[in-house]
Amino acid sequence: MNNMFDITGKVAVVTGGSGVLGSNIAEGLLKAGAKVIIIGAHQDRVDAALERLKAVSQDVAGTVCNVLDIESLRSVKDTVLSKWGRVDFLINAAGGNIPGGTLTVDQNIFDMKVEDLNKVVDLNLYGTVYPCLVFGEIMAKQQSGAIVNVSSMAAYESITRVPGYSMAKSAVENFTRWLAQEMAIKFSEKIRVNAIAPGFFIGNQNRAILINPDGSLTERSQKVIAKTPMRRFGDISELNGSVQFLCSDAASFITGATLAIDGGFSAFSGV
Fold this sequence. Notes:
This is SDR family oxidoreductase. By secondary structure, the protein is α/β, with parallel strands linked by helices. It contains eight helices and seven strands; from the N terminus they run E-H-E-H-E-H-E-H-E-H-E-H-H-H-E.
């Protein structure tokens, strides 16, 4: 039996764990035998996610936390250490867009409110950086661990209508590379920092942009599919294998990398 991909008994913290992306990743880690604590911004969503995840495994806990609040994150850190004694993996799935941060078809960049732009950048960039600072410090003391950040196709291509999100995800990739060398050189080569870059998946935040009320594809969706060689949207569960791989010993010599999970979107010129 090949145990390189085994993460049984490992402890994972998943930010944004009450959302579609984060809860799906948390479920994948639980099915692989890990212990998971999910972090979410709203108690009702955390409770709903926990109810579903506990049907998979009892080795799961959840807490409300603002990923932009260092002290709140430190409180979660203390809770995790008290419960399980260590943190082996950090998955930064907190992020996304907000209505004011996405331009409508009739708007241009000068119509965007600066405060909405700031909110999107803060959530996606600092909402990744701050958890790395708090939980990465545990890994530095342990001399081991794996961090998986979440980038986006918006960091690869100048996708229209989402300027703040694109800027933030581009910065997340740069920070991923920077933190990877920092942790390996100054603390341990057994601490790895990588990212995944999901392609296009249908979720609550983008459903109205990609799917018409009658279930047909919007014009934007048709453009996405035309540039995706696999000619389909991804299923959210198709992220889980890559996350497990990057957390496991199978990826022991991979750090500072971003893995595209996009059906070929980033590789295709469209012609």
